[in-house]
Amino acid sequence: MQERTLEGIKVVECAEMVAGPYCGKLLSDLGAEVTKVEAPCGDPARRRGPFRGDLPDAEGSALFLYLNTNKLGVTLNLENKKGRRLLGELVRETDILIADWPPSESERLSLSYEIFSAANPRLVITSITPFGQTGLHRDYRAYPLNTFHGGGEGYLLPGGKQNLEREPVRGAGFLTEYDSGLCAAVATLGALFCARLTGRGQQIDVSKQEAAMALSRVDIARYRWDGVVESRAIRGARPGNSIRCLDGYVQIHCPGDHQWRALLEAMGNPGWAADPKYGDRASRVKHVEEINARIEEWSTELTTREVARRVQAKGCPAAPYNTIADLLQDEHLKYRGFFAQAEHPRAGKLTYPTVPYRLSLTPPDCPRPAPLLGQHNQLILGARLGHSTRQLLQLSQAGVI
Amino acid sequence: MSVLPLARYRVLDFGTAWAGAMVGLILAHLGAEVIRIESRERIDGMRLGWPGKGAPPEPEFNAHFHVLNPNKLSITANMKQPEGVTLIKELVKECDVVTDNFTPGVLERVGLDYESLRAVKPDIILVSIPAAGNYGPLKDVRTYASTLGALAGIEGLVGYPGERVLSLGGGYADTNGGVHGAMAILVALLHRNRMGEGQFVDLSQWEATTSLLVGPIMEYIMNGRNQAPQGNLSPTMVPYNNYACKGEDTWVSIAVYSDEEWQGLCRAMGEPAWTKEERFSDKYSRLKNRQALDELIAAWTSNLTHYEATEVLQRAGVAAAPLLNVDERHDDPHFRERQLYIDMEHPRTGVEPVFDIPWKLSGTPGAMRRHSPLLGEHNEYVFTELLGLSKGEVARLTEAKALY
């Protein structure tokens, strides 16, 4: 078997739902041994779904199955002192701890970086919390809705909507949670380079809010130049944004005059476009609603793919709004092998998206399925930490594992 | 001792626009010596153009560029001149990683494709991140972030339930692709450290964004449902929405999962009589009567500012956060405490606040080291110090527009 990039690296993951587990998955898919520590009731992602046939099953939540491939699973009750002691034993032997405890929880349960690193100076602790480990809001509670909108981008969605009376909406799925998990994985690999140079670990503080903001750093900088406080009426108010077609929508982006002319050419140079009020970009933005209505007079007779093809052919960026069904059937993604299949003992054969990078020497292989709840208690807590089967039984009966 | 993670590595960076710049930015933040290859023959669009209002049409005044390129170096080497290409190859010998976000084929046409680079530096890593990857039927697709987001499926999931599709409209697909690019480079470096071999890495920005749509993808895989925009709806949480506050276009997000949190919300609102009504008596009923509930909560939030509402709710144990406009994204007191913006002195534009690294490493704080480079600012360092060319030779190459 091919040697994996992170083979030999041990990770303990005390994190639920998406952000922390996504960080752990990025490492486990690269060959790190990631031990996922769940409370005895299990990660809430097990109850989130989607489930096949809409039938809830703690071992069948697709969100959980995707996020926890290639991991080992143990259960530990960290409210219990013995549970925390077992975690301590586990972390002493590990390179990386991924944790999503809010600062107040770490303090309450004495699960601090200082304590763990005293026993294991090489340890890297990656903390992923909504607002970070320091600052005024460090102990604020948040769910994905709050972290997405707390990052500021949410204030501007949906783009191209003129009615400010209606509420801002979020991006699809758990976007900010994934952004945070990726950001944490990058920082964690960075700390791993450091640990190899110095023999010392360190603590990484990832704020989900800031991970989201980092992606819109350009918009934040623009404000200093133009002083314009962007709103949903400004965001996306441009010719070509969300154009309705016969069977869906397209996105056309024509900020430059040459791209605008290319779009007009694709439409057969309609007479209305000769009006001087459409002559420059600023003026086109001012008349965006009437322009988009004009474009739709043309586009609603055509399919999204045909509109995108004709506009692209003239040299202006345009693309259909792919739906999920479109993506799963997309020839380009198929050709590249973006979706992969894996077998799960309970959920059966599943198709997953893979990572977006193809390493020529280390292609992705078929992932080992996500662990069943407590599947590796015997292996990790028993064989690895040296507790007997009888001790594990007692721990289980006492609600520790 | 404070050691930056990638202090021993050098990266040759052809990255342009937002996605390309983001890759190098992260590596530079991690301590790598990132050298931007630029040329006056074709200046990175991000150095020019918007936001040029009142700014001279020169390459040093764009605020977008300044927040995406701190900690990097810049040289001007002209790929249209054979001598420029030769110099770049000489430089590759001194580098660990080369990265680009050109459309497929550009490096190959000038003789700087992976095989050519490998011939001069056998363990070189080339990470290439075009919009749709280097192969596949749509590899040559022309995109901006917005059209890339449409292809990736993310734009089409924004809007209100049951209404027309709207959009994300920002640069998300670009910058997100850049972070994945940095991840891929770290992985390839770890592989090289272990096995002693470099490699070619192909990254599709399109896939970088699609890979985050796991929920909607799995819903389709499991149950064949093709998701449409859902506003802020969650199948398991209620209330779960943004609510209008006192003041124009200000909002607070409120998210409630458990009964305990629901009780906290009722307390925060002062236990109004309607909270005791049968239709809100348990989570199932609240999920069914979501809209009526949203209206009643909004009536309460409309008397508070978004910060006041957040404070009252958080004190009652309820997840809430203000929606921040761009002004507040600079001035939020939490960000001030965390020192989220670093004031960088730029030689042409003065002091500018630059968004810091989105993580804090306890062992290597303060990794923001230098302002974004002027075009060709480091020609002397790179060509005389690093490659050992004489001053006369550099002058000749400059004259010949190989360094241009």
How many discrete domains of chain B?
2
**What is the largest interface, and how many residues per chain?**
A-B, 148 and 152 residues
**Overall pLDDT confidence of chain A:** 93
Fourth-tier CATH superfamily name of the largest domain in chain A: Crotonobetainyl-coa:carnitine coa-transferase, domain 1
Question: What is the name of the CATH topology of the largest domain in chain B?
Answer: Rossmann fold
Describe this structure in words.
- The complex is a heterodimer of chains A (401) and B (404).
- Chain A contains 18 helices and twelve strands.
- Chain A has 401 residues and is α/β, with parallel strands linked by helices.
- The relative contact order of chain A is 0.13.
- In chain B, α1 (17-29) crosses α7.
- The two termini of chain B are 40 Å apart.
- Chain B has two domains: 10-212 and 338-399, Rossmann fold, CATH 3.40.50; 240-328, 2-Layer Sandwich (formyl-coa transferase, domain 3).
- Chain B is α/β, with parallel strands linked by helices and 404 residues long.
- Chain B is elongated and about 85 Å long.
- In chain B, β10 and β11 (350-355) form a beta hairpin.
- In chain B, the strands form three sheets. Chain B has a six-stranded parallel sheet with strand order 3-2-1-4-5-6, with helices on both faces. A three-stranded antiparallel sheet of chain B has the order 7-8-9, covered by helices on one side. In chain B, strands 10-11 form a two-stranded antiparallel ribbon.
- Chain B has 17 helices and twelve strands.
- Chains A and B meet through α3, α7, α8, β6 and α9 of A and α2, α6, α7, β6 and α8 of B.
- β6 of chain A pairs antiparallel with β12 (360-361) of chain B.
